[in-house]
Amino acid sequence: MNALAEYYADADFEILAFPSNQFELQEPGVTGEEIMNGIRHVRPGGGFEPLFTIFQKTGVNGAKENGLYTFLKGACDYTFTEFWPGLFYDPIKVGDLQWNFEKILIGKDGKPYTRYHPSVILANSFKDDIDYLLNM
Which PROSITE patterns does the protein's record reference (predicted)? Predict the structure, then answer.
């Protein structure tokens, strides 16, 4: 995501990250500082500093789902067709985010444009869609 943030630094483009602990409990940090220390020193580590906004930890699925994610998931096709083990929320529903690093691209109009499977990670994988939305 840092590569995209650098590439689009002068564009009307923003990356927003919402940590969640609902996937194999991989985000145990509670405070913003604990989460940032995990990013800097564990994953990805090596003193990594994100060039994008990271919000407080939130629920993206289930009974404690943040309303933003209810809206986003309702507007996009889902990226998984079966559930994986290691999900820590209830109830589980079709269309839920099923792993960390799913990404949702939103247009300038505030409408979700598309949702990417968590395996889509290379900056070039997003550029055509981002460029399209920036030029609308």
Answer: GLUTATHIONE_PEROXID_2, GLUTATHIONE_PEROXID_3
Is the pTM value of this prediction over 0.85? yes
Tell me: the pLDDT tens digits for 35-68? 999 999 998 999 999 999 999 999 999 999 999 9
Residue with tokens 């900056």: 123
- Which of 133, 79, 78 minimizes the C-alpha distance to 111? 133
- In the chain, at which residue ranges do the beta strands (DSSP E only) sit? 16-17, 53-54, 103-106, 112-116
- Residues paired with residue 115 on neighbouring β-strands, in sequence order: 104
Q: Alpha-carbon distance 39 to 34, whole Å?
A: 9
| Domains in the chain with CATH codes | 2-134 (3.40.30.10)
d(CA 84, CA 24): 10
**Peptide bond connecting 19 to the previous residue in cis, omega within 30 degrees of 0:** no
